[in-house]
Write a structure and sequence with these properties.
By secondary structure, the protein is α/β, with parallel strands linked by helices. The protein has a single domain (about 1-140), classed as 3-Layer(aba) Sandwich (Rossmann fold), CATH 3.40.50.2020. It contains 5 helices and 7 strands; from the N terminus they run αβαβαβαβββαβ. The chain has helices at about 1-15, 30-45, 65, 100-110, 155; strands at about 20-25, 50-55, 85-95, 115-125, 135-140, 145-150, 160-165. It has a 5-stranded parallel β-sheet, with helices on both faces. The protein has a two-stranded antiparallel sheet with strand order 6-7. Strand 3 (about 85-95), helix 4 (about 100-110) and strand 4 form a beta-alpha-beta unit. It is globular, with a radius of gyration of 16 Å.
Length: about 170
C-alpha cells in the first residue's frame, strides 16, 4: 500500500506544475490520512509543504435519512482559502460516485477552486454518476455485494486493503 501511495503522490506532482497552488483535502474519514501521506511524500520529494484539510460531507449526502436518524457531523477544516487554488480531493474508495458528488457540493460552500482533481486509492467501478478519478491507486473489480475495506495505521493500527464478500 505504501508503494501505491508513493506512486500516486508522484502522479499528483506530475499533474501540477506549481505545487504551491495545491490544497490536499481528505474526505472524512479515510481520505484524511491519504491527504496527509501525500503531503508528506510531496514535501519529501519536492521540498514543498502542501497544506492539507479535511471535509465532512454528512449533511450533503443524498441518502442522509437512510444512514441513521441522528447523523454524526464532524468538523470540516480547510487550511486556507481555496478560491483560485487547485484542490486535490482524496478518498479511499470510489464506488457509485455519490460521495464525490456530495464532497463537491460541500467544497463549493467554502469557495471556488480553479480546479478540483480527484484521487482515490481504490476504484471499484459500479458508477451511478459520471464521475471518475484523475489518479487511481488500483482498480478492483467487485460485485455489488462485495465491499472494500481500507485501513490506515493512524486510524486502524495497520495499512491494508481488504475485499470482503457479502451475502450468505
Amino acid at each position: 500500500m505504501r508503494r501505491v501511495l508513493r506512486r500516486m503522490a508522484g502522479e499528483i506532482i506530475e499533474r501540477n506544475r506549481d505545487l504551491r497552488e495545491l490544497v490536499l483535502v481528505g474526505i472524512r474519514t479515510r481520505g484524511v490520512p491519504m491527504a496527509e501521506l501525500f503531503a508528506a511524500e510531496i514535501e519529501r520529494v519536492e521540498g514543498v509543504k502542501v497544506p492539507t484539510g479535511h471535509l465532512d460531507i454528512t449533511m450533503y449526502r443524498d441518502d442522509l435519512s437512510a444512514i441513521r436518524p441522528q447523523p454524526v457531523v464532524k468538523e470540516t477544516w480547510l487550511p486556507e482559502n481555496i478560491d483560485d487554488r487547485v484542490v486535490v480531493l482524496c478518498d479511499d474508495v470510489l464506488f457509485t460516485g455519490r460521495t464525490i458528488r456530495a464532497a463537491l457540493d460541500a467544497l463549493m460552500d467554502y469557495g471556488r477552486p480553479r480546479a478540483v482533481q480527484l484521487v482515490t486509492l481504490i476504484d471499484r467501478g459500479h458508477r451511478e454518476l459520471p464521475i471518475q478519478a484523475d489518479v487511481v491507486g488500483r482498480k478492483v473489480s467487485t460485485t455489488l455485494e462485495q465491499q472494500i475495506k481500507v485501513s490506515f495505521e493512524d486510524l486502524d493500527g495497520e495499512n491494508k486493503v481488504e475485499l470482503i464478500d457479502g451475502g450468505a
